[in-house]
């Protein structure tokens, strides 16, 4: 399903841009003051401002969602594209308004006023002037607009660029407060928006108000996991349930590595495995005080294990050399059998690439690994979305209501009549049904698959890989097996701006470089400790103190 693949590729790219630190509550560095800029926190005021979650029952999934704790929910799975495309919106949502929009686009910008845009505007009852901007230069394009106070009526601002865009200060000045329209049961006026997980709305909150409209949200977002070549390991009689601890992994490294035969057990796994020792993604709270991950024994213990993994010879030499570009090639070819990666890689395109290299290819993932002993299996929940759109504060209340009605249409669930139009265009013009799957025509490739409308609003994520049921079944089963192990990290889904003076300490580049050298076997843990000591005295302690006093003590943890 082309549009789904495009979306997944985009999310994969965005994850690499945002970095794993975003999963640990990376805070936007902006402003020169020492106060948080409208921190999105865990206050009672924010809780009352959040929309009430009302799941959609419009479309029944082949694989139902499984609930974890509050705000945690696996993605539903679809083995086929729904044939009974129900409508969730009666009539047209708009009232004839005309609005400008800007969204990022990584690809060729479709021509203005094309047949797809015309069909969408007719269905929406408004004229949306779609003006996609080059995603590669988006971070420099938008600040020019905000400086001149010339934002469009509706704009997409990816959250990993909150710092560049100074969104904390734009909220309430140039960006409209949506709280009166969406808080509590008010959202029931827009049932498709109400079906977006509450956590995603938190990601668009500043202070105790709602500003952002989420896209591509999920109740099951993690930094990544530890993948393995399921076909190869099972042929050797090794199953995932035999690998539960770090010791099991180390033993697996010894069993699988055959350097003379050109096979190594591991590619890099550090970014996705270190929390297994009980280390936080970035922050933890101990006796009411904030502690950075660098200060924890668990983090150093994880680093020691990874150093031993590399020095034992179980890590591929190209990974040690820093070659991440060819990681998939090594995995598909069987030169590496275990590798860390984002869950966005578990999809139809990956299956096609893998089976092209080896017809037996099958990706698998270990369940949450523990360090052993009494360590509890733990995986940290990531931010519920990183794609957020905003309305211009100059809009009149009736215009905001009109655009929210449009957003409700755009957020229609997977497989509905509205979703099919938004994501595939008009049947017979932009797509045709091939083996039950909407498949793009040449016009669809030019006008629809360069995504625009879903960046303004879209429904929660689903798992769907037409033609590769094993991928959908495997990924859905893995989510279901691990949903109970998901925990919210400190400052989950919170938007907080750091003073610019803290940016260097927050990045901690010298420490991160030493860490990479350590888990590649080039430096001992002692040198990382030295780098951490230097970091603490050079600004790290001030960062920790500032975060403790100005965020934790005032706004809580976000959990």
TrEMBL record:
Gene3D superfamilies: Periplasmic binding protein-like II
PROSITE patterns assigned: PROKAR_LIPOPROTEIN (PS51257), TAT (PS51318)
Domain of life: Bacteria
InterPro entries tied to this protein: Bact_solute-bd_prot1, TAT_signal
Family membership noted in the UniProt record: Belongs to the bacterial solute-binding protein 1 family.
Name of this protein: Carbohydrate ABC transporter substrate-binding protein (CUT1 family)
Species, as recorded: Saccharothrix saharensis
């Amino acid at each position: 399903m082309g549009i789904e693949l495009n979306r997944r590729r985009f999310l994969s790219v965005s994850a690499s841009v945002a970095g794993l630190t975003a999963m640990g509550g990376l805070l936007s560095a902006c402003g020169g003051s020492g106060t948080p800029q409208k921190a999105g926190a865990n206050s009672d005021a924010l809780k009352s401002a959040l929309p009430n979650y009302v799941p959609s029952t419009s479309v029944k999934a082949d694989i139902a969602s499984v609930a974890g704790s509050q705000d945690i929910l696996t993605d539903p799975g679809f083995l086929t594209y729904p044939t009974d495309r129900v409508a969730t919106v009666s009539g047209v949502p708009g009232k004839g308004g005309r609005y400008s929009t800007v969204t990022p686009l990584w690809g060729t910008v479709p021509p203005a006023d094309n047949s797809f845009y015309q069909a969408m505007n007719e269905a929406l009852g408004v004229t949306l002037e779609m003006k996609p901007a080059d995603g590669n230069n988006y971070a420099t394009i938008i600040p020019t607009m905000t400086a001149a106070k010339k934002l469009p009526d509706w704009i997409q601002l990816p959250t990993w660029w909150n710092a560049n865009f100074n969104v904390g200060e734009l909220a309430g000045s140039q960006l409209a407060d949506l709280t009166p329209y969406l808080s509590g049961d008010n959202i029931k006026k827009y049932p498709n928006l109400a079906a977006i997980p509450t956590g995603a709305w938190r990601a668009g909150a500043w202070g105790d108000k709602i500003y952002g409209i989420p896209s591509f949200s999920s109740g099951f977002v993690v930094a990544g996991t530890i993948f393995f070549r399921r076909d190869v390991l099972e042929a050797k009689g090794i199953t995932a349930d035999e690998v539960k601890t770090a010791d099991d992994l180390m033993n697996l490294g010894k069993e699988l590595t055959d350097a003379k035969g050109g096979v190594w057990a591991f590619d890099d796994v550090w970014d996705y495995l270190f929390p297994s020792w009980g280390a936080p993604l970035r922050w933890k709270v101990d006796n009411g005080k904030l502690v950075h991950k660098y200060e924890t024994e668990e983090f150093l213990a994880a680093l020691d294990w990874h150093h031993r993994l590399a020095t034992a010879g179980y890590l591929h030499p190209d990974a040690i050399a820093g070659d991440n570009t060819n990681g998939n090639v090594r995995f598909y070819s069987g030169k590496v059998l275990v590798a860390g990666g984002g869950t966005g890689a578990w999809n139809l395109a990956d299956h096609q690439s893998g089976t092209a290299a080896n017809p037996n290819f099958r990706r698998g993932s270990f369940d949450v690994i523990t360090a052993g002993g009494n360590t509890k299996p733990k995986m940290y929940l990531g931010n519920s979305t990183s794609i957020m759109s905003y309305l211009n504060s100059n809009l009149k209340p009736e215009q905001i209501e009109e655009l929210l009605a449009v957003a409700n249409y755009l957020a229609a669930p997977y497989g509905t009549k509205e979703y099919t139009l938004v994501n595939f265009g008009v049947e017979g013009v932009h797509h045709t049904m091939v083996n039950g799957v909407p498949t793009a025509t040449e016009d669809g490739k030019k006008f629809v698959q360069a995504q625009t409308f879903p960046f303004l609003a879209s429904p929660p994520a689903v798992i769907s890989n037409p033609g590769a049921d094993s991928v959908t079944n495997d990924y859905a089963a893995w989510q279901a097996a691990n949903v109970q192990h998901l925990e919210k990290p400190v400052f989950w889904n919170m938007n907080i701006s750091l003073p610019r003076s803290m940016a260097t300490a927050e990045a901690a580049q010298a420490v991160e470089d030493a860490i990479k050298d350590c888990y590649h076997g080039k430096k001992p843990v002692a040198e990382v400790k030295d780098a951490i000591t230097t970091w603490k005295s050079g600004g790290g302690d001030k960062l920790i103190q500032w975060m403790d006093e100005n965020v934790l003590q005032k706004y809580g943890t976000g959990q």
